Amino acid sequence: MNRAAQLEQLRQCPRWDILIIGGGATGLGAALDAAGRGYKTLLAERADFGKGTSSRSTKLIHGGVRYLEQGNIKLVQGALRERWTLLRNAPDLARPIPFILPVYSQWKRWYYWLGLKIYDFLSGHLSLGHTRMLSPEQVIQHMPAVQRRGLKGGVMYYDGQFDDSGLCIALAHTAIQQGATVVNYVAAEGFLYENGRIVGATLRNQLASQETFAVQAAAVINATGVFADTLMQADNPRHQPVVRPSQGIHLVIDAELFPGQHAMLIPRTTDGRVLFAVPWMGKVVIGTTDVQVEAAVEEPVAHAEEIDFIIQNFNQYCNAQLRRQDVRAVFAGLRPLVRRQGVQNTAKLLRDHTTMVSDSGLITITGGKWTTYRQMAKEVVSKAAAQAQLPRRPCHTRHILLRRPDKEPSLYAEHGQPLHPRYAYTEADVLHAVHSEMAVQLEDILARRLRLLFLDQQAALEVAPRVARLMQRELGCTEDWVSEQITRFTNLAVGYSIAGEARSAASHD
Ligand SMILES: Cc1cc2nc3c(=O)[nH]c(=O)nc-3n(C[C@H](O)[C@H](O)[C@H](O)COP(=O)(O)OP(=O)(O)OC[C@H]3O[C@@H](n4cnc5c(N)ncnc54)[C@H](O)[C@@H]3O)c2cc1C
């Protein structure tokens, strides 16, 4: 993956079959799908791949136990099928993980066992392991920090887990291998029309050159997540917003505070939702919340109330009481939920996706889940191809292996110095991300190629100057660039710290 080469392809190609705007799960999935079918495909992401919601998920590949409780069998079944496909196609990035739901009353033990048996049954022959009941002793053995007082046992079941921003890079890389042009830091600013129909878009390089491109495309897909309305309004100033952003946050703590290989599902929080505590990359990720926010922002920040909510609910199920100072990092993301008439509470809005076609032909896809990105991509590419009267071709993504670019052994032999004494990341990882994974800003490395900002905000700040210097050497940047990157990253990192409470009041509904 080389950004200069991708930009050159963008300059050289006079006309594309499909232009995709937005480089999160949905857009990258669509780029891979379209390129895999042989369409001439361009994807433009205005920031970095996965900068939006797609790096801020709970990192679960799941049918959604909660949606089962809501009776949405079709959504659950479709997602369970996709769970299996993703685990098979991205073996380096995704794995099955056992969950335990601890229970404190006998009848609930049966209730949850039955529910999770149905969940397992719905996955049919694609099951990852059988749901079973556990005694209190077995729960404690697997999950030593669980609240023991009143524990009646537990239910064990299986789901999938993955590295979300890692999968974004794997999708971008694989799409490029399939013939797509995929570029980060290029924003769509407006559309090109002929006789009232969209025939392309104007794009601008967001980095130093600010170069603009007038791109012709037979079909244009808007896959900008919570920002979908902005492009729909650019296309039609009378457009009424369809996306309702809902914020969810996660706290990250050291694994010693909640040891074990099993994730915990807390079945009912004080606001009637579920909460997960999941081992991930040597830490434990706890989340999430569901808070309606008025406007979509690129860098959402956790509210103080959301942090308290997670700590309180987690502590009810945990022997060792978590304190605010135990939190190594906080991250917030926005769900692109689709508005429904008469539904105010975002927790009640369906996690299903929606595809819309405007009068001018702009195709917008939003909503959904990471787990179902492939299915969403298949649907939107078929729609785009039909609308643009491109030759009809079948989707191949069910069988395309997803991998990040290979690591050069020589790089790892020569630059094995660790970046931080507590973490396994090395200088070679930084160089690899610059050479082969299109990392161009300090944040790209520390937040999404390596996950240090999401794992340990303080450690990320400590290594930032060294990483910026390594990048400067590789990219040939100036001294000013180094200090500007460090300042920008330091400001960004405030929002990932428990202390960074420039946090406004939340409206839990
Ligand atoms: C808290 C939380 C937890 C979640 N947990 C899970 C989970 O465990 N499992 C699961 O399956 N799903 C989960 N999800 C849902 C999942 O993360 C989202 O459905 C998915 O990431 C949405 O991807 P997207 O590509 O539609 O949006 P995004 O990832 O937001 O991508 C949109 C992209 O468009 C870009 N963009 C915007 N405007 C422009 C423009 N003008 N030009 C170019 N680019 C532009 C943005 O920079 C952004 O990168 C979770 C979501 C949240 C918020």
What's the gyration radius in Å? 23 Å
CATH C-level category of the largest domain = Alpha Beta
Bound molecules: flavin-adenine dinucleotide
Uncertain stretches of 5 or more adjacent residues:
502-509
Shape: globular
Secondary structure: number of strands: 20
Number of individual domains = 3
For the largest beta-sheet, the strand count, sense and barrel status come to:
10 strands, mixed
Q: How would you characterize the overall build of this protein?
A:
The chain starts with a helix and ends in a 15-residue tail after the last helix. With 509 residues, the protein is an alpha+beta fold. The longest helix is centred in the C-terminal third of the chain and has 19 residues, at 457-475. The radius of gyration is 23 Å and the shape is globular. Helix 2 packs parallel to helix 7 (164-177) and helix 12 crosses helix 15 (457-475). The protein folds into three domains: 3-53 and 165-242 and 347-399, 3-Layer(bba) Sandwich (FAD/NAD(P)-binding domain); 92-156 and 244-344, D-Amino Acid Oxidase, subunit A, domain 2 (D-Amino Acid Oxidase, Chain A, domain 2); 409-494, Alpha-glycerophosphate oxidase, cap domain (Helicase, Ruva Protein, domain 3), CATH 1.10.8. The chain has helices spanning 3-12, 25-36, 65-69, 73-89, 106-122, 136-142, 164-177, 228-235, 304-316, 373-387, 409-414, 427-436, 442-449, 452-455, 457-475, 479-494, and strands at residues 15-21, 41-44, 60-61, 94-103, 132-134, 153-162, 181-183, 186-194, 197-205, 212-222, 243-254, 263-266, 275-280, 283-287, 291-292, 327-338, 353-357, 363-367, 418-420, 423-426. Helix content is 36%, strand content 25%. The strands form three sheets. Strands 3, 4, 5, 6, 11, 12, 13, 14, 15 and 16 form a ten-stranded mixed sheet that branches. Strands 1, 2, 7, 8, 9, 10, 17 and 18 form an eight-stranded mixed sheet that branches. The chain has a two-stranded antiparallel ribbon with strand order 19-20. The protein binds flavin-adenine dinucleotide. Flavin-adenine dinucleotide binds next to helix 2, strand 8 and strand 16.
